[in-house]
Amino acid sequence: MIYSEKLIEEPFSKYKLVKYLEKKLDKAGLAGVEIQRTPMMTRITLMVLNPARIIGKQGRVINEITDAVKKEFKIENPQINVVEVQEPFLEPVLVGKKAARHIEMGKKIRAVLHFMLREIMRAGAIGAEIVAAGKIGAKGARSKRLRVMAGYIPKAGEPMRLVKEAHINANTKSGVIGVLVRIVPPGTVFPDKTPEKIPLPKVIETAKEIEEHRAV
Q1: Statement to judge: residues 129 and 148 lie in one domain
Q2: End of a domain among 84, 105, 125?
Q3: Which of 63, 84, 105 is the last residue of a domain?
Q4: How confident is the chain (216 residues) per 10-residue block, as mean pLDDT?
Q5: Can you tell me the distance from the alpha carbon of 82 to that of 52, in angstroms, rounded to the nearest whole number?
Q6: Euclidean distance between CA atoms 31 and 47, whole angstroms
Q7: What is this structure's pTM?
């Protein structure tokens, strides 16, 4: 019985820790969290756009996070590493957040999806898919789904594990719109397929630029 409880407790504790870090480090552009447990320590790797916001002056912020992880999550020896994200358009969390912010600002959703997909593929992705679902349109409109994709995205089996994925919500006046982003990073090797370079559809390649200075 103790063993069963531990199996349930560990994933739940990991989930709570990740959610805590996501909330705490949102302004630093947190793209992902990796947690590795060893007999000697728990190694936590934070992938962020702005490492300086996490490290802080004389390591103050990173020390605060380390202390909180020890006290709130009962992790005895956490080792926190900060890694800078080199290409934000290859990180589903960052793409999803950027898309959600533009949607909340009132940008046309289809135009936002086309722009994001174009930038993902220009960054070197093998394949990408973005889906927006919810009450798209004026207040009172029925729920619907918009989907754009390019390149190669596996849909079943073991290769799906190689796809990076994130789901972000955009809160609009008409309701919540969910944004699902799936990306196959450059260099991904599939056991049963060699993806070919597929030209972007014209509607994606010619997508209009979105005013970046208005998005935080």
Answers
A1: yes
A2: 84
A3: 84
A4: 44 82 86 87 90 74 86 86 93 96 93 95 94 81 88 85 93 91 92 72 74 46
A5: 10
A6: 5
A7: 0.80
